[in-house]
Every structure is written in C-alpha cells, then in structure tokens.
Amino acid sequence: MLILASRSKTRAMLLAGAGLAFETRSPEIDERAVESAAVAGGADGRAVATLLAEAKARAVAQMAPSAVVIGADQTLALGYELLHKPATVEAARAQLELLRGKTHRLHAGVALAVAGEVVWSAVETAELTMRAFEPAEGDAVLALEGTAALDSVGGYRLEGPSIRLFESVRGDYFSILGLPLLPLLAALREHAPAALSVGPA
User: Fold this and answer.
1) CA-CA distances (angstroms) from residue 74 to 11, 36, 46, 126?
2) Annotation marks residue 73 as catalytic
3) Which residue in 2, 132, 162, 190 is deepest, having the highest Cβ count within 10 Å?
4) pLDDT for position 201
5) Which residue stretches of the chain have pLDDT < 50?
6) Model confidence, pTM
7) Catalytic one of 73, 139, 151, 172
C-alpha cells in the first residue's frame, strides 16, 4: 500500500497523473513546532522542508508500518524569512505585496518511509521573481484565484492566474507545485518498486 502523507490536492493530482495507486492520510504533527525548533537550531528553508517531509512520512508510517509512505512539504524563503500559507485572502494580498518585485525561493522536500523507517529524502529548490505589478493587478489576480490562493505557501498558484504576476521562474515545475516528482519516482524504483507496478486508483 502506498500512502501520501498529505491532503494536498495538487500533490495527489501529480501522483495520480503518474499512474500511482495510493491513499492519503493527514500526518499528526505540529508543523510550526518542528519548523521553530529547526530554525532555532540554525536550519534554513531547504533543511526545514526536508525535516517536515521526513516528519510527515514518519508520523504516518508509525500508524501504518507495512505501507510505503510519501511525506512532502514546501517552504518559501524570502531572504532569511520563511512565509506560510495565508489564512485569508487579505493575508494573501499582503503576502503578494511583500513578494512584489523581489526574488524568492521555493524549497520542496520529499521523503520516503518503508517498513516504518525513512529510507530516503531529497529537496529541490526553485527561484522565482515577481514583477513589480500594480496593486490593482494583484487584486484582479486574487479575485480570479479566490480561496484557491490560500492552498499555496506563497498565496499564489503558478498553474493558475497568478502566473501573470511573475517575471521569471527557474526550477523544476513539479517541485514548484510542491512535489519533486522525478526524484521521488526514482526513489520508488529503488526502494519500493512494487508501488509502481499497479495502475491508477
């Protein structure tokens, strides 16, 4: 059995698109506590993304030790500051204003647990630059996005109208969406090939 330790619709879409049969479970971890402890210990955004992905995989693997578990998480770093999913559209607007005209980095961590233990993890980083768009343009994009913008750590969706706000994007598209899919598939081939032998659910 393959489990995605995440309720992210985008990550589930990516796995389903790759032809994997899986179920999803929400990991019972305090993400902010894990992040705070890691940052206090000197961890940067890349390390935090990896630690969160491993923590999610481990938490679900403890509940289903016979399963192959995928944990994933993403951090957004603007310099040394880590941003989080906005709770409201107004918070998303403030976040876009903070990112406007600047370059930020998305770090996508992924981990694989087999037989109850994390056997592999990786992190991919993308660099994104927003245009110095006018506030009215940001408002128009948020109106098009609606509450979907709240599902993203950046308050935007590159696969949606938010792409209008960007000047340049450098990095793996799947990782930008929150899941380093190609490294993950390679890890499954190595550590859990049976997970790839079944068709879509």
Assistant:
1) 11, 15, 9, 11
2) yes
3) 162
4) 42
5) 199-201
6) 0.92
7) 73
